[in-house]
Amino acid sequence: MNLKPLLFTAVLAAFPAFADEGSRLDDARQVANSLPPKLLQVLIEEIGKGGPENAISVCRERAPLMAKAVSEKTGWAIRRVSLRARNAKAVPDAWEKAGLEEFDQRLAAGAAAAGIEKFEVVAEGGQSVFRYMKALPTQDVCLVCHGTPARMTPAVTTKLRELYPDDKATGYEADQIRGAISLKRPL
Ligand code: HEC
Fold first, then answer.
1. Of 81, 78, 75, nearest to 32 (Cα)?
2. How many domains does the chain have?
3. Pocket-forming residues, ligand 1, beta carbon under 6 Å
């Protein structure tokens, strides 16, 4: 007889906080895995319809709206962060910054960008908060707006310069880490 499931159940029953943490992790992963592909689909559609300069609004307006809708549905605070942020709102906090630096090190050490994640229960304002983040790797399609100047059309460069005079989010190649989706929720 395999006792492993029984043992696991016993451990969860003895430590409810641990069980809670496990379900939070499953939940966070589900949200972090479902949002980026939906956004990517809309991006590709809009680029197809009106070129990359037309799709800038997808990353600028639709992405936060989509995150807000999922946030309201699930209770997770959701945002995107980057060590080289385009929007100042995406500048990471201390936990996210340490995570993003660790992600780059793990990538350099040979980990596949798409699987890199981190989670931790932290104390924030006297409360236990479950934090989760997952790397957002660059794919070829990202480079029309986040790549080297050679990859970007003059129309995109001009529009980005207008909207984000302090833009730090260009110069990427494929398979780097553009940033992360970051989630948190009280435990
Ligand atoms: C059509 C242009 C365009 C494409 C293509 C694009 N982005 Fe962006 N991206 C933007 C813009 C514009 C912003 C700033 C959005 C804002 O103001 O919040 C942004 C912001 C981000 C951010 C938030 C952090 C920051 O720097 O502000 C991440 C992460 C990100 N993009 C990842 C990606 C990834 C990964 C891809 C490819 C799957 C991608 N983007 C494709 C235009 C684009």
1. 78
2. 1
3. 40, 43, 52, 55-56, 59-60, 80, 82, 85-87, 90, 136, 138-139, 141-142, 144-146, 169, 178-179
